[in-house]
Protein 1
Amino acid sequence: MRSRFAFTLLPLTLVAGQQIATLTAEVHPSLTWQTCTAPGSCTTNNGKVVLDANWRWLHSTDGSTNCYTGNTWDATLCPDDATCAKNCALDGADYSGTYGITASGSSLKLNFVTQSGQKNVGSRLYLLADDNNYQMFNMLNQEFTFDVDVSHLPCGLNGALYMSGMVADGGMAQFPTNKAGAKYGVGYCDSQCPRDLKFINGQANVDGWTPSSNNPNTGVGNHGSCCAEMDIWEANSISTALTPHAADTPQQTMCTGDACGGTYSSSRYGGTTDPDGCDFNSYRMGNTTFYGPSMTVDTTSKFTVVTQFLTDDGTAKGTLSEIKRFYVQNGVVIPNSESDIAGVTGNSITTSFCDAQKTAFNDKNVFADHGGMAAMGKAFEAGMVLVMSLWDDYYAHALWLDSTYPTDGAATSPGVARGTCATTSGVPSDVESADAAAYVVYENIKVGAINSTFGSA
């Protein structure tokens, strides 16, 4: 994952907070998912989803005055981090009307642009175990399966399903000034150590806040929120990437300034996380006919994505050693494509694959620097939260996913070509206008023993 800047492309009043407001009732949409022990032997879980705090209305605790408007804080309500947390309250969400989010049974649909009283772009949601706690996952010696429809996701959009090293209650127990917690989608973190979050660890991110120069709704503060991240699925109809991101500390920690590293800092590799990850993008690995419209995995219709997290001893106590991918479409099990890059073999993510890929692409091996596969496994042991989102990219236009990136590189150089999208594609103002009706659907989530969620591979 290269950037999540577009997560904060919000209506003027939709931001993150720590106190609780009641002007809008917070009712979590229901979403069922299954745990499996063998093919056809699955138990249904009655889960719910919650909208991330950064999309929500933040206003004064004693009224409805915005604490944040455009990309600036109210100087009276929010003169500093601590005072802002006391003065500002986070409100409930109208999931379908304001945000274009609908859930039915095991299916979750996220619309790209929703126009109601204001314009909303994209969304980020988390799976809940109950109304006050995120569902935690340890994927060691397990597989994760879901169905997805990316047929309405063009160049520049990213429908992402991934896991984050967030804590179960959203930080309420650890940070007493955090009154909202998981119930209001608080506590986000990822491997970019995002500094565009309005609240981190029970305090506002006011101090040092610099409004964005190209996004009227976002900015960068002094603090960021770091953790390990497992990108099970980042995709549109053109390209997809499977990417683990290691971290020195697997669960959420707060960083300061450029020491955060990642997309939001002047030194990308200055932090405690791996912002690049070790990715498997079939197009980038040399197979240009595997994933896309009318290809082996045909993105014009729904398909199933299976990801297996294998350990060295075949138990949940072992060390993460391999991440394997399968697809199922029209009843056919499709193994992931093989690498066609000289010096890089295989169709799964292993330590040897990552080391060889970094060498072939002349990329810095930050994944290994931060512990690689073993560190990713430690994040699973600590527990990770399931995230489902749809976003466009103000920083790099998602070219790192579906085009030639860096744009001044030669497409014939190993690792530079990632998809067929033009280097001029993905500009947020363009996609928000031309592709406002875009959407993604995630459904039939299953978690269980290896080969239990989709049949034998």
Protein 2
Amino acid sequence: MKLIGSLASPYVRKVRVVLAEKKLDYQIQLENVWGPDTGIHLVNPLGKVPCLVMEDGYVMYDSRVIAEYLDTLTPVCKLLPPNGRERADVKNWEALADGVIDAGVVVRLERTQRPPELQSAPFIDRHLLKVTRGLASLSDRLGDSPWCTGTHYSLADVAVGCALGWFDLRFPEIDWRTPHPNLARLHDKLHERASFRDTVPQA
């Protein structure tokens, strides 16, 4: 398998963590979707990463779809329950973590892709509020539990950990640790795992 993506993307990192946890072999092809010479549209018409290219040429995209598929390939380190409410709960955690990232990405694009005189402060504030509320919700849901879904490491933890790591990279001015020490503990515990240490996001 070949994974197309960047070392900064939290969505690509999520897939890389899953690949590491599942002990699956793959090659990574680095791609800057914002570069003038990007060819990402040739594999994903939406122009996004990650993309997972199978040995037969089939291309799968969207980190949530890819992660769910990878979890079916081997019983090693099962990250999703088989079905029912427990599975939906893990996917709900993942959707919330990805949604917090989505809001942050919008802010970053507004600040970096538009000239200062065209940037909208109310628009930025609206999406930063989504980030604040999303992080607070993740913290409230985690509570005092060792892992997002209780006692077991899952894709929920992977998604939350990748979100927190990305905010450290792109929004170092946002202090999420002080108001949410339980998220800080989870983040630190995740970085005891090789899958997280080996995929620290890089600009």
Protein 3
Amino acid sequence: MTEPRKINPWLKAALDLGPLVLFFVVFMRFRDQTVTLAGREYSGFIFATLVFVPVLVICTLALWRLTGRLSPMQIATLVLVVVFGGLSIWLNDPRFFKMKPTIIYLIFAALLGASLILRRNWLELVMSEALPMRAEGWRILTLRMTLLFLGLAIANEAVWRLMSETAWVNFKTFGLPAIMVVFFVANSRLFERYALPRDSE
């Protein structure tokens, strides 16, 4: 498998996080307003989605062009954003875009759960370059990530159905990334315990 080309980490972070930050900024600016485009009225949330979708497409294509490869998670996210974001814009209904994280997390949970049942280290195929570990470590991490994605799916449903639109945007922009960071920090001992020795490079 061809290794991805290295790019400036600040540029990669901007391409990864830029669309989400832009969505947050546009939503906060227009959340209490109605935006009229081509004779149709859109809420601030739908307008932010309208900005977010093409920007994410451009940034993802730029990452592919610069690195020569996209991860399965990036591809799945792009497809679901285009589909569910497009439905929200077309039908002028924010519910589709709010359900998108739930669908993504359920898909990931199902794939990881299937890999445990089939005794395949699919997670290792995706993350082994960053986290070289023994097979037992990957099985434990796969189980924990399966439960994590199920929990995130439930949390996303609870927030968008029971709380305000602003609360959901804050949860998506800050809460979900923070949970992922805390999860990996909390598993640092697992990585150390089952780590494989790295090459001299």
